[in-house]
């Protein structure tokens, strides 16, 4: 608990006051006291005033005070009696005070007595005796102002008035009015300026170095000054006046669109109370602000405590842990703008290898693309360790590999991901984008090889998921191995046909074999429909009958009656439109019609896969 200083003036004031009644003329006619309980006894008998009784007793632990005896005397007095909750609110406002037991020294007990005497007025005044604008002189020596607009309110030296919630409890030595706030005189506020916590807005108003922030809060939408006076708790990263001047760069606040200014300000507000000690304990990582980014999700904020405390790589805490009534404020030296995908990548030291690869040789293709605020992206970002481990075994173009980590046109958050295929920015050919298989059976795995280790880093123009492995350009084999719907097909291509190296054949790319391939891939259910899976001698030609070599035939290339010769040697025929829910039908080499194509255009770097619901059988008579 902080040490209270400079209380001698208040203590002297207390000693000089005493409990002497003013004349009966001071506050109107005093009603005759009722027989029965006095003020103290009435408080003791009222459950919601038990903390007031405890406060009187705590103040009396100082030899300088005898408040219980005084308020049990003849009076008459008017007492504005704070509820238990009112005292709880006061304790929350005093930095380092958790209970009345913290008033543990004579100096502090005398301070408490000063506060309590500010609630007592000589003479007895019923609510009918109180008029709007009336001034009441307390036994502490300072005045209270009365307002009767919409109820009965008692204004102390703060900005918030106390409301009389229960009026006119008449006792033998006066009258008690129950109020919902502990009243504070200016003398107490002045003495405890470094201890009394105020809401974040008022803290900023009182700081001469945060006036541009106050002006910005006032200019923005959503009545942010009122929001930041609310319950919270909030953590606010408060830019200095110099920080705002640098951000504005000669412009005026009114030159910034109000919605943009509002979102930038909200990017400095974190829900909950986060101290610098909390951040240092974590080292580095992400939290969310109240600003909104892609998909109306809360924007991510990167913090790093390796050298001080910085946010998004560009804003440093210069004054940490300024306590407020409803949270904590960290003063920062730069305004934190809403980050886009590129900003996030640059700010995170764990992504330096990615940033280096994206910008190698002065390349601006990716930074231009991923800074586009008119588009939305999902980026699967490999960490530094992932880049260190990547050997590029197929000598693929690095730019194509990097493009294979970017989904254009959608911000796919982890909660939206399912087992499915999406298209990346990498291309097989113009407007023929490579596919990416997402599996969510156990975490999030991409193309069967790369796992999401940190999800949902929200930017203004999309979302980043960091991954533990570089996602190389996929072959048709990659998708067959990654997609659990093809597990029987993979078994057939490997374990059940050991004499034929289907994996090597179908992994060929860049003209190194019979690529590109068009593969009609039967699902597990298609194999299950067979009476049994044939032995190797019969299975090999069946598998070959699902592959067309030397052509990347996408769905847009299919036409009714089109034929294609498979690796096995027999032709298959395409029928459009498909029957039922089929995208198209196939008649296989054995003449079996109505084989359904259920999904199309799973695009690999060396061909394309179309999913079929039945195993294709070649002509066994030739």
TrEMBL record:
What are the residue boundaries of the FAS1 domain, all occurrences included? 36-183, 197-336, 338-471, 473-616
SUPFAM superfamilies to which the protein is assigned, alphabetical: FAS1 domain
Which residue positions does the secretion signal occupy? 1-23
Q: Which SMART domains match?
A: FAS1 (SM00554)
Instruction: Provide this UniProt record's keywords sorted from A to Z.
Output: Signal
InterPro entries, sorted: Adhesion/Biosynth-related, FAS1_dom_sf, FAS1_domain
Q: Does the keyword 4Fe-4S apply?
A: no
Q: Which Pfam families match?
A: Fasciclin
User: What's the protein called, per UniProt?
Assistant: Fasciclin domain-containing protein
Organism name: Flagellimonas profundi
